[in-house]
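Notes from hallway chat w/ T.B., transcribed later so I don't forget. T.B. wanted the structure written out for a chain they're using in a teaching module, and asked if we could keep both sequence and structure tokens in one place. Agreed to drop them here.
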Amino acid sequence: MLKLLVIIPALNESGAIARTVRDVRAVELEGFSLDILVVDDGSSDDTAVSAGAAGALVVRLPFNLGIGAAVQTGYRYAAAYGYDAAVQVDGDGQHDALYLKDLLCPIAEGRADMAIGSRFLAGKEGFRSSAARRFGIRFFAFLIRLLTGLTIRDTTSGFRACGRRLIKVFASYYPHDYPEPEAIVVARRLGCAVAEVPVVMRSRASGTSSIAFLKPVYYMLKVSGAILLHTLKDRKVYEP
């Protein structure tokens, strides 16, 4: 039986977090023992209370540290308590827990160290975000392929699973502001196998995106620069 931790970073998601936790708890995963950890990133609403009432373990950060720190907190918990796999699930209800089994298959079978849930693979429909966001996703896909040779269609998907090796790495080092594309490059730099799995995503149940109005411009510039820097760093920087 493999130990699985589902990490749910959440900021002011009281309107969706209980449903998200219940959806994950309802999934039957043969061969896994499942725990759910909600990392409350300094919410000003009842996110932590709602998550605990729905059956999740809850860690409350003292103030808002950002998505990267919240996710890394989850990985630190997973590393400290010896989990074999960890899955990131957004707290806003966009990620359908029914795809957890598909996402975990490449990890459990030893085919990948990271598996990313992709909304852009053939045969899957559902929420695909705004045109501006899709442009950014395609741009990062091009940049990552150019610099690493790895083809990933849904580079900003936060619905992803990692095995023991990357749990240990991400517990020690994890990108901060907008970490999803950077984490892919870190995994690739370490020689880890990264796979994509087709999933269907939903529109968010509540709350607002952290990338709005003019933020996409800053997002693309910041992440592009960070990705370029990762290709220059000694890989020993990432090893715990």
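Follow-up for T.B.: The chain has one domain: 2-237. Might be a good example for the class.
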